[in-house]
Every structure is written in C-alpha cells, then in structure tokens.
Amino acid sequence: MALFRILITLILSTALPAASIEISLLSTTDLHGNILPYDYYTAKAAPRGLAKVATLIKEARIQNPNSLLLDCGDTIQGAPLETVHQMAVRAGKSTQIDPMMAVMNYLQYDAMAMGNHELNYGLNNMLTARSQAKFPWLSANTRIVPGGAAVKPFRGWIVKTVAGVRVGIIGITTPAIPMWEKPDNYKGYRWISGVTASKEALAEMRKSAKPDVVVVIVHAGLDRDMATGQIKTGEAAGENMVHQIATDVPGIDVIFFGHTHQQLAGTIINGVLLVQAKNWGGSLARVDLKLEGAPGKWKISSKDSRLIPVTAATVPDAKVMAIVKPYHDAAERYLSEPVAESLVSLRGTHAREMDSALVDMIHEVQMHYAKADVSFASLFNTAVNFPKGPVTVRELASLYIYDNELYAIEGDGQMVKDALENAARYFLSCPPDGCPGIVQTNPKVIGFNYDTAQGVDYEIDLRRPEGDRIRKLMYKGKPLAMDQKLRLAVNNYRSGGSGGYTMFQRAPIVWRSGMEIREMMIDYYREKKVFPEKPDNNWRLVLR
After folding, report:
1. d(CA 348, CA 383)
2. Residue 18, by phi and psi: left (phi above 0), alpha (psi -120 to 50) or beta?
3. What Rg, from alpha-carbon coordinates, does the chain have?
4. Distance of alpha carbon 353 from alpha carbon 539, whole angstroms
5. Sheet with 451-454: strands ordered across
6. Interval 336-347: pLDDT, tens
7. Which runs of E-coded beta strand occur in 208-367?
C-alpha cells in the first residue's frame, strides 16, 4: 500500500505542470516635489509630476493587480510646492502632512529608499516627513553613530508577499552625503559602502525571511557609461555604486535606481536587471517577472522592463490634484511676491558662452554675504527669463532652483586656477585654426557643473587642451599668484567636491550661511530694489 501511494505521488508530480505567476514591480525616482503637471518657474503646464504618474500606476495595477510600488528617493525637496511647505515646517509654522507623503500614502507605496536631498532642510524636517509616511523609508547603509544623537534608525530591508511570492526589498542611499550637507543636517548618522550594506542585508534577509525575489532600490547611479564602460569623472568617491552592487553582490534579481536624473529602460549586468525611471515624474518604470514553481519554491523564468512615459495627453489623477491644492495655492502666493525691478530684459539662453548679468546676480549676493574675494557659481537653468519691469520670486527662483547653502572657504590662486580648468571641461576643444563660431559642449559634463568665477578676470582658450585653457588669470589688475591666499564663496555641493571640483574638498570651511542661497538673493535684492543691467565681462571664451 505504501509503495502504491509513492507511485501515485510520483506520477502526479511529473504529470502536473508547475504553477506560474507574473508579478509587476513599479518604480519612480527623484520626484523632487513634482506632483502637479506644472512648471512653477514659467507658470505653464508641463508633462511630468506624480499626479500624472498616478494615472499610469492605476492603469498598471489594473493590468496586473499583483504589483508593488517603490521609490528611489529625493522626494521632499525640489519644486516650490515642497519648498514652501518645508520652510514652514522648519520655521514651526506648519503641522500639515508633507505633500509628497500625503500623495504617496494615497497611492499606497510599499517602500522608498532615502535620498540625499531628504536631509536638505535638516533632521527635524526629514524625521517629520518620514513619520508621516505609511510605508518604510529604507536605507541599509545608513547607520547611527555610536554615542551620537538619538535619531531613529533606518530599516535596511523588508519582505512583501505578492500572490504568494515573497519579494525582498533592500534600500541603499548614496554615502556621499557628508560631502554635501552641513553636519547638523545629518547629526547622528553615518554611511557605509552600498556594496557592503547590500551584502549584509541580503544575508540577513535570506537567513530570516527566505525571499523568492530580491529587489534593491538605490538612491545612487551608475559610475560609468554603459555603452563604452568608461568611468565617469568628477564624482565623489563611492557616490554611484549601482554597477558594483550588480556585479559584486550575488543573488539580486532587480535594481531600481536614481540620483543621476538620467533614465534607463533596462539593461542586464551579471544577470541583474537595472532600471531607472525619469526624474521629476517623467516616467514610471515597470518590471514584469514571470515565476514558475510553487510558494516557497518560486524561480524567475523571465524578466522584462520598460519605461512608461508621462505625456501631455496623460490625464492627472483628480484625487492627487485635490490633495495638493492647498500646498499649490501657498506656493503660488509665495512665488507671486515682488522682489525688485529689472531695468532690461534678461535671458539665459547664451549665459554659459558669455558673461551674463544673470549669473553676476548670483555672484554679487555670494560675494556680499560670504565676504569673499572670489565667487564661483553656475547657471542652472538656461531657460530663465527676466522681463523688463517688476520681477517676482517666481523669476528669481527660476534662476536659482536648488536649495543650496553658501559657504566661505579658505583657498588660494592655485585652487581658483584648478577650479576654472575643471569648469572649462564643459566645452569641447576647437581645431588648431580655431572654432567656426559655434561653441560645442562636452556631453560628459552637465551644464550646471560649469561654474564661472567673479573677483578675477580670465580667458578660456578653447584652442588649447583640457587642463591648460585658463589664460590671463588676473586678480585686482595683476596676474594671480598661485600662492595668493583667498576667501572663496561656493555652495555646499561645490565645497564637497561635486562636479569634479575636488580641489575644494581640502579647503577649510570658515563660514556657513545657514539659509538657502535663493532666500539670500530674495532678501538682498528686495533691499537693493534693482538687478544688474549688464555683466562686467570679467571672462570670455577664446575661439580663434
């Protein structure tokens, strides 16, 4: 009888096909407070934002209810809708739920990786928003400093069960935060290697939870060009380690990532599927996993990925629009406040190829508050447009769109020269007989990493190779001595070495503003009443 039962069991086990199921993983990243399909700096509609992505999420869930929704961080900083709320929280003037958390709760996110910009407004703001989320903020490589401040630890991983499939989710944050943030903004926390933390989290997860699928959500990017394999220059050490996690941590199935504001529909590295959605809610990343087997014994048989773009035709979710209306109205009131008068019309179209009064506006404020000899600043947004006449906070905010703080650092002539040579990498070299008049830019250097300097006069000779382009570098009418001691004004990201400005990393910080440069500009020009009409032309490009 026992033999008969064994035979029947063997026959049934070989005759019945293994079960199969498909689950979907959905991901956003680098939303930066972009909820509405609206550009606050131009007051025009824009094909982006979580309200539109919400429609794509709902459609994806209808197509496959067996899904998870994840985010890769940088959520509570960015668009004025978030900025105005965060400033009110920091000033103790608001107890409202963070708008991003309110919308993400409504959409029932399952987890989010903490991003570096979550700390821009300080620990209290970060912890407040985090406490309002109905989903975990994950960061396996964020640790509490022994004996440090009493801050809340981050969970490194969770496991969610979807249609009988156990999905393990690990969160990783770029460890370069101390290079960009002032210490008070991350007091009590430290960061270890993303690769090390992924290995440790995966080992813990496998031992205690035995997941069928392993997903890592990473607020960090690829440190290389995937087409050529060339390592990118100008990044902080360990800042972007997604490629290393994929190659050095066995057992991962999917990595969603962000931080670099690029997008990747999908590529396979060492058997791991890598996907990056477009920033600011420009697309929704979707991964479909087909599994064969049974609960506890599922095996992935196929995995496919794609990006679902937000378009002008994508209808925003009405509930999301209603949730954020009070925050939107507050942002609009703030942006409509007058600041100063512009005596001429100013546009940023060519403000990276020639000196501009727009960038000089930033330099003037930085030199004033930092009491600096030399200032470094960049034009973040070439679409900026100051009309002739009254200028509001909206136009001024479009000139300085990031929540950077101002630092004064101790430097010298060599540091200035090295920084300008780094900035000059933004342009491609001209032929020996000169450029024909059209300046070609380097696709490997993002425009906002091109800084100009105020307080010195110089030329950028594009007929010369990278690293040897700065000519006629003058300070107070004389050639700048390389050992000349100087007080430099830079933003906190530059001070940390971002964008290849590693020469600033070794410089002592002698003063910190404690407030955003944008707010300093608003205060400064409200008092001054007018903006600069024209540049002082302290630098120029040499093409022939």
Report:
1. 6
2. beta
3. 26
4. 10
5. 451-454, 374-378, 485-491, 405-412, 509-516
6. 999 999 999 999
7. 213-219, 254-257, 264-269, 272-276, 283-293, 299-309, 338-342, 346-347
User: Which helix (H) or strand (E) is 166 found in, with range?
Assistant: strand 165-173
pLDDT digits (tens, 9 = 90+) for 208-231: 999 999 999 999 999 888 878 888
Architecture of domain 338-542: Alpha-Beta Complex (3.90)
Q: What angle do CA 156, 160, 162 make, to 5 degrees?
A: 155
Per the structure block, which two tokens stand in for 220? 């960090």
Using alpha carbons only, what angle is made at residue 69 by residues 66 and 74, rounded to the nearest 5 degrees? 170
Class for the domain spanning 25-330: alpha beta
Give domain limits for the chain.
Answer: 25-330, 338-542
Place of tokens 């490009």: 541
Encoded tokens for 228: 């050529």
**The pair of three-digit structure tokens given for residue 492, joined into one six-digit string:** 């906190």
Closest CA to 346 of 395, 393, 392: 395
CB 370 within 8 A of CB 489: yes
Secondary structure of 19-74 as H, E, C letters: EEEEEEEEEECCCCCCCCCEECCCCEECCCCHHHHHHHHHHHHHHCCCEEEEECCC
Tokens of 22: 């498909």
CA 538, 539, 542, 543 dihedral sign is negative
pLDDT at 481 over 50: yes
Mean pLDDT of 86-112: 96
Q: In sequence order, what are the beta bridge partners of 45?
A: 38
C-alpha atoms less than 13 angstroms from C-alpha of 438 in its C-beta half-sphere: 1
